[in-house]
C-alpha cells in the first residue's frame, strides 16, 4: 500500500492492495500448486468478484507483472487496463534461482532452512538487499519498515517466494506467446538502469509482443519505481482512466 498505492489513494482512486497467496498475512491456499500466475490470477479474480468491483485497472509490479498479464489473458472481463511496472513477463532461463535456492526446495533442507536460520540470516542481509534493489537510485527512507519487508523471511512466505521464482520460467514460456491477444489499454513502465529486471530483456521484448501497449522508460531509474517514481505512475493511471472513459 505504501509508495504508489498511497499516492493513488490520495489522488482519489479506490486502491485495493492484495497480498499474493502466502505473502503478508495471507494463507498460501494450496502449497506448491499456488506458485503460478494462472493459479494466483484465479484467486485474485475470485476476490474481485466477491468485492463487486467491476473491471479494474491492474497495476502489476515485477513478478506481479506476469500475474496481471495472466489475468488479462484468462479473465479479460475483469480487466479495464494494465499498468505493468518493471514487469517480469518474457521467458526466462530454465534455472533463474541460484544453486542454494534450488537446494532449499528439497523438503528436508526446506524445513531446516525455513525453521531455523532463514530469519536471523535474512534479517542480517535485508538492509544490503534493500539498497541493492534500489540501485542506481538511493533507497527510500524507512523503506524496510514501511513495506513490512521482514515478513518475507517467515517460514511460509520464504518458501512461497522460492517456489514462485522456481515455477516462473515454465509459466512465462506458456503464456508469453499469447500476449499479442491482449486488447485492453496497457502501459509498460520501466527503469532504464534496472539491475533486477533488466529492461532490455523484459520490457523491450514485451513491448514488441504487445505493439499496442505504450512503453515508458525512465532515464537513470532502477527497479523500485513504485517508491521512486510514484508521480509518474499516478499520471499513467490517470491517463488510462481518461482513455477508458472516452
Enumerate the spans where pLDDT stays under 50 for 5 or more consecutive residues: none
Distance between the termini: 29 Å
Q: What is the CATH homologous superfamily assignment?
A: Alpha/Beta hydrolase fold, catalytic domain
Order of helices and strands: HHEHEHHHHEHEHH
Instruction: Note the total helix count.
Output: 10
Helices and strands: which structural class?
alpha/beta
**The CATH top-level class label:** Alpha Beta
Instruction: Give the CATH topology.
Output: Rossmann fold
The biggest beta sheet is recorded as: 4 strands, parallel
**Extended strand count:** 4
Large-scale geometry = globular
Question: Radius of gyration in whole Å, from Cα?
Answer: 18 Å
The domain tally reads: 1
Arrangement of strands in the largest sheet:
1-2-3-4
Would you identify the CATH architecture? 3-Layer(aba) Sandwich
Q: Could you tell me the strand content as a percent range?
A: 5-15%
Domain AB hydrolase-1: 4-228
Pfam families: Abhydrolase_1
GO molecular function, one term: catalytic activity
Protein name: Orf5; putative
Q: What's the helix and strand layout?
A:
Blueprint: H1 4-10, H2 37-51, E1 56-61, H3 63-74, E2 79-85, H4 99-104, H5 107-134, H6 143-147, H7 155-175, E3 186-191, H8 203-209, E4 214-218, H9 225-228, H10 230-245
Parallel strand pairs: 1-2, 2-3, 3-4
Amino acid at each position: 500500500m505504501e509508495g504508489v498505492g498511497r499516492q493513488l489513494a490520495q489522488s482519489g482512486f479506490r486502491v485495493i492492495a492484495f497480498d499474493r497467496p502466502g505473502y503478508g498475512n495471507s494463507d498460501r491456499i494450496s502449497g506448491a500448486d499456488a506458485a503460478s500466475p494462472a493459479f494466483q490470477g484465479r484467486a485474485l479474480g475470485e476476490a474481485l468478484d466477491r468485492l463487486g468491483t467491476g473491471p479494474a485497472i491492474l497495476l502489476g509490479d515485477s513478478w506481479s507483472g506476469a500475474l496481471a498479464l495472466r489475468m488479462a489473458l484468462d479473465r479479460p472481463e475483469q480487466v479495464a487496463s494494465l499498468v505493468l511496472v518493471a514487469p517480469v513477463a518474457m521467458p526466462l532461463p530454465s534455472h533463474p534461482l541460484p544453486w542454494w535456492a534450488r537446494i532449499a526446495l528439497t523438503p528436508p533442507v526446506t524445513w531446516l532452512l525455513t525453521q531455523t536460520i532463514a530469519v536471523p540470516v535474512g534479517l542480517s542481509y535485508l538492509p544490503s538487499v534493500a539498497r541493492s534493489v534500489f540501485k542506481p537510485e538511493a533507497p527510500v527512507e524507512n523503506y524496510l519498515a514501511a513495506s513490512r519487508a521482514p515478513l518475507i523471511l517467515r517460514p511460509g512466505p520464504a518458501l512461497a517466494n522460492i517456489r514462485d521464482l522456481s515455477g516462473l520460467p515454465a509459466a512465462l514460456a506458456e503464456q508469453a506467446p499469447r500476449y499479442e491477444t491482449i486488447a485492453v489499454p496497457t502501459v509498460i513502465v520501466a527503469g532504464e538502469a534496472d539491475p533486477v529486471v533488466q529492461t532490455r530483456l523484459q520490457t523491450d521484448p514485451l513491448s514488441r509482443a504487445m505493439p499496442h501497449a505504450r512503453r515508458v522508460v525512465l532515464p537513470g531509474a532502477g527497479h523500485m519505481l513504485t517508491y521512486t517514481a510514484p508521480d509518474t505512475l499516478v499520471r499513467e493511471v490517470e491517463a488510462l482512466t481518461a482513455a477508458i472513459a472516452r
